[in-house]
Write the structure tokens for this entry.
Amino acid sequence: MPPWSDGIFFAGSNWLIFAGIFLLVLALTRIFSGLERKDMAAGAARTRSFLTRYRMELLARLAFVNTFVPTPRYRNYIDRLIRESASEDVYTFESFLAAQEVWALFCGAAYLLVIDPTLPVGLVMALFGFCVPIARIGAARSKRLKSIRKDLPYMMDLLTLSVQAGADFVFAIQNIIEQFPDRPLRDELRLLLAAIRAGASRKEALLKLKSRVLLAEISALTGALIRADEMGTGLVEVLRSQSAFIKNKRMQELREKAKRAATLMVVPLILFVFPCMFLMILGPIAIRLFMTLMAG
């Protein structure tokens, strides 16, 4: 056999593998073609792109298949990410797993068919694609927590002033929701108020808020409010102390960032600023010295 026949056989085996994967996806699509036809038709009518409609239908059918996947630990992990990133209206566990499967198939197939037909590297690229939705929702979660931490001191000032003026806790939260900009912290306060008005106790609503927002400031605030309810202490003193605690913690974080910024500025100073200064100062002197030596 000629030496190049092994490469042809290997590439042909990769094509057969991905042809089998494509046929499997196509078979699943055909099997569940009647799944929620009316709902998906209404959702597809709101979109204009054919690719978007096909992606929505494919994710819906793969999500239906994923309902039979027995992964309780991974389900809890993904549900926690979805809850902490406030993506309940976008993802369920099944649809998120379907998005991971589509990304894995796309990255693996794109690498093997376009770049290099090496199966182990293609599997690594498929694993990379499987992790892409987790990275995206993790970035959304980090951005949301950063926004909540940034707006929390302002919210605490408003809440303290409202309670100090004589308003009760629920009315103070309602005033903050009406005056606060449309940001993640406002959404959390709206969920807190909705839980209290739905019949849940203040302790239960605060514990739900603590489980949704994993911040040390929120944990300390909810714990202090729960203890104040149980012990019967006034809310004004509790809110003042928590407001001071949150502001001090915020200032401490800003000081630490300023110290790190001063340290990080050393590298660009050495690499870019100091050489330019040396050229500006010593350059004319070096040119004058060179001209003097040449004239002598």
